[in-house]
Structure formats: C-alpha cells, structure tokens
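Q: Sequence in, structure out?
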Amino acid sequence: MNRTSQNDSDIKILVVDDVEVNLIILEEIIKNMGYQALLAQSVKEALEIIGSSDDLPKLILSDISMPETDGFTFCSMLKNDPYTKDIPVIFISAMDSASDLSKGFALGAVDYIPKPFDKTEVEMRISTHLKIYTMQKDLEENNRQLNLVVARQMEKLRIEQKNIMTALARLVESKENVSGNHYKNILYNSRILAEGMQLYPKFEQEVTDDFIDTIESSAGLHDIGKLMIPDSILLKNAPLDEEERKIMCTHAELGAKTLIDIYEGVETNDFIDMAIDIAWYHHECWDGSGYPKGLKGDAIPLSARIVKVVDVFDAMISERRYKKPIPLDQTLTYMQEKAGMIFDPDIIRVFMRIYRNFKGIRIKD
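A: Exactly. Output:
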C-alpha cells in the first residue's frame, strides 16, 4: 500500500504481542506502509516504550491473551490514563467469540484483527483508523482554535463593558470627590485586603485568586448609583439633612438595578455578578443596621463586606466637599470599635494587620 503523506515516516504504531513471529509479521506490514513499528512482547515493555518516547504512538495493536497482563487490562489502563486515552487500540487475537469482541469494544478498543493475519486486511484496518484518528485530532484543533476566537471576542466585549462602567464610575468621582483618588484607592485596597484574607483560614476557600482579580475590577462600581442622585444633594458642601440622607441612601439600590438593566440579556460572569452585589450591599452592616435591605452577618456577600471596610476607611481619611480628613489614628480606633457592628470582625482583624499597605494613607515616622 502506498504512503498517504510525506510525513508518514513520523507516524509510530506500537505492536504488543508475546509471540515473536507475530511481531515480525506486523512489523514488516507496518514498515511497508511507510510507518514506524514499535515492538513489545509484554504490557510492561509496552508501557516502558510509551513512557520513554517523546511522542505517543498514533495507533496500538495489542494481543489479548498474554502472560502476566492481558490485552483487556492493557486497554483499560490506556483508556483510564488522560495521557493515553485517545490512542486508538486494535485487538489482534485468535479469540473471536462474541463475548470477547463485546468486552474489547466496551473497554474502548476501536477494532479487531483476527489471526492468522491477512496482509490486505491489516493494511486496511491500520489505514482506516489512522485516518479517523487524524481527522479527530484535526477537528479537536479546529474546535480549539474556534473556542479561542470566541473567547477573545467575549473577552474584548467584557473589557469594553468594563471600560464603559469604569468611565461612569470615574464620572461620579470627578463630581463628588475632592482628591480624585477614591476610585483608584478602592480598587487597589480591595485587592490588598482580599489578598490578606486569603491567608486567613476562615476565608481561604472563598477568596481565590479569581475572586481577588474580580474584586479589583468590580469594586470601583460601588457608587455608580450616585449618577442618579440630584447634584444638589451629591455636591452639597455640608452634611445632609434627614430627607437628603434618605435620597442619598437610594444610590445603593439604584446602582445595582442600573447594572442589572445594563447587562440584561448579556451572559453573566463573575465581574457582573460581583459588581451588582457590591453596589447593592456595600452599605449593609454586620449587625443588620445597614441599608438597603438590612442584611446581617454572613448574609451580606463577602465582596460587599470587603468593600465596606475599604470604602469607609478611605472616606474617613480623605478630604471631601463637606469635611476635612480624619486623622489616621482616630480612623483606626473607629474601625476597631465598630467591628462586629458595622464591619465583619474577622475582616477588621486582617485589615488592622495590613492597612499600612493601602493607598491613600500617610504613615507618620
């Protein structure tokens, strides 16, 4: 039989049979087809060949009845190993009972070649299954490439969505904040606090690397609802009265619902879900005294509890339209006193150890 391509000489076919004459016959057939024949007289020897080779055989011909380890067991071993599970296995044997064939196919074999060998039949079986194997690999590669293209497009869309949301969040900051650094501080400090919590046994399962990356992106949208607050309240240069405060408090729910509306019909992802949680619940308090829903304790999403700490801390030590910065020592005292009331006490414990790494503070010498 003629070679099917100029690279056939690179194709390796492993033959496993304890009878040497069978190996010689099959080796000759395989070489005449233009392929490389790897020969093994036992399953142990076959596994050694597979383990020591830089590239896997494209096809395995295995006898069924062999001493120590039979072909059925060998096939099962191959199919249970992620490294070798895709290699097509063809049984070669004088055993041709229906039960033997059924067992072989159930274990994952793709074909059966009876003994004594017919040269033309062996060539046809090998050629057919090599073509099928190659087609499957080509299809897998095409699917992989297609998935990469789709993933890149989806990521591009997510980045564009984030950029739009970021621009809106920065718009809020530019109107409300004197320093202009609150947005950056919230992103950076949320990540720092989450990284510290990752080392704390209570949080190590939930605060994964993906969680940390996501909160760094999502935290900046916490006050996006303030876009819907009248400028007369948002930009007031004095403390708000009771009625104004009630209106201001609506920004949490308004922000969450805005994000929900913006992403309606869009496939959800961690960034969207976390941004909604943070916008909605970052004014909830550990003891249930917060707003808008009065959630308590662990019922408050962890991301919102983190941003709660970071947001309050940065707001206190920063200058605003209506106040001067509060000294760091007074701010830290307040944070500790309100642990278990306003703040998650376990998060505050982590915060007190790492706050010096936050942006927006000045540590006195």
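The two ends are 85 Å apart (CA to CA).
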